[in-house]
């Protein structure tokens, strides 16, 4: 007698999968598990009552994770709705909803009029010999990989270049408050507001940096993920397998801007707070998943026992 819930989780543990690799033969997509080898593998088999109790505990963890995922999805959907309603749609000069006291039409401008845009100049590009490790004094170089869900992350494979190449292009030295925008590649149009940066950083040729001209940075960050900007990205991109945007075309994007400085600031503050709330829930979700994985390892391999 066995508990299917127990073994459904047991077969997902890193410990079991590592041992399972010894029963695998073939290469790449042709990998197979030999039934005899698989059948001869030893597995942990606690008393049935303990199996069921462990399965119940892990099911509860899964339910908590599911609820947190649902809450996170709701917040992301809420942000999409606010972006749609708090910025004017194409052909309109006022948004659908506004904060109290603000009236009147928004200004129609070109993006290049409200930002400064800089990218890595071709002759200052870097090659393989300019790439070094972080331990050797390398400078973090942001690429499209560092932008996930319009948030900046370093939890990925990062590239570091020499300080000489970093100092060679002072106009793209990255600071908090800057906005990174992907102009080349499969994630074309993705952007991220730089916050919490505590080390020197620069850009690779696929990314440009935007800095505002008397415009709230959080307002700009929110505006860049609206459907109005996304549609212009899709219509302006050139190239086939590797789509790209020219810096001139980015500057030519049509944007709507509130006349009131206070309205810009309030909209930016609102979306900044919403982004921080989403980030908080994302971190809580990841912590819960890590907790469940650790707990599963301890319970499923008998390191920690539960009462039957």
Radius of gyration, CA atoms, in whole angstroms: 25 Å
By DSSP (H or I, 4+ residues per run), the number of helices equals: 10
How much helix, percentage-wise, in residues?
Answer: 40-55%
Task: Note poorly predicted spans.
Answer: none
Envelope shape? globular
Count of distinct strands: 13
Strand order of the largest sheet: 4-12-9-10
Task: Give a quick precis of the structure.
This protein has 308 residues and is α+β, with helices and mostly antiparallel strands. It is built from ten helices and 13 strands.
Describe this structure as you would to a colleague:
With 308 residues, the protein is of the alpha+beta class. The chain contains ten helices and 13 strands. A four-stranded antiparallel sheet has the order 4-12-9-10. The longest helix is centred in the C-terminal third of the chain and has 40 residues, at 261-300. The model has no long low-confidence stretch (mean pLDDT 93).
List the main descriptive attributes of the protein structure presented here:
alpha+beta; three-stranded mixed sheet; 10 helices; globular
